[in-house]
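User: Can you help me understand a structure? I only have the sequence.
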Amino acid sequence: MTNTAATLPALPDDDWSRILCVVAHPDDLEYGTSAAIATWTRQGKKVAYLLLTSGEAGMQAPPEETGPIRALEQQRACEEVGVHDLRILNHPDGTLMYGLDLRRDIARMVREFRPDAVLTTNFDVEAYGGLNQADHRAAGLATIDGVRDADNNWIFRELVEEGLPKWHAKALLVAGHPEPTHAVAVDADAVAAGVRSLEQHEAYLADLPNHPKPAEFIPEVLREGGQAMGVEYAAVLRVFDLGGLAGS
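Assistant: Let's start by predicting it. Here is the structure, written out as tokens:
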């Protein structure tokens, strides 16, 4: 993460009540971001998760066995951070395709949930110390466009016919971005909740023998974010103002 020399400002989320998180797989939100989510839900904000796949190709077991296991683990992870609205779509894991179908599904959820902000994860080609996974790239691009599609009645007109008029989100948030612009201060309880949320992906992590234990690295990730904000712990985000962000 760059930008650590400068103090990052707090995310201007005081007047937000709803945040939608859109990612490719179970566990994508559990690498530090879930501590911010735990903070938001404790503040009374409603957070929904939209997973575009069930992560069925992410383990050694056959996909028909893996998908239900990972969905259950994600439900348990959600419970650790106060999220009660989990949607998992049936797009194919590992071969997630950017396109109109994906954009429409995201736009539908934005119009249904009506969030103040939409959060996704890093979709750069290079990310996390290597080359980013294909589904992450497709999910991020589709999220950008799906959020904008949701704000245009003339794109996906069938959504209006479904009773879902356009909706304008104030901001797009990107977790795991190398150049964050804002941060969410989190306390020790939120850090612990974030650790527990990743620990719930027990079967998935067991398939990754070299994966560090959540308690060994999640607090350090959040402590590094805290240094960038001037607090003990923080989750950092790249924020794109879509119009209506406080202070814009």
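Now, to help you interpret it: Strands lie at 18-23, 46-51, 85-88, 117-121, 126-127, 130-131, 171-175, 182-185, 234-241. The CA atoms of residues 68 and 87 lie 13 Å apart. Let me know which part you'd like to focus on.
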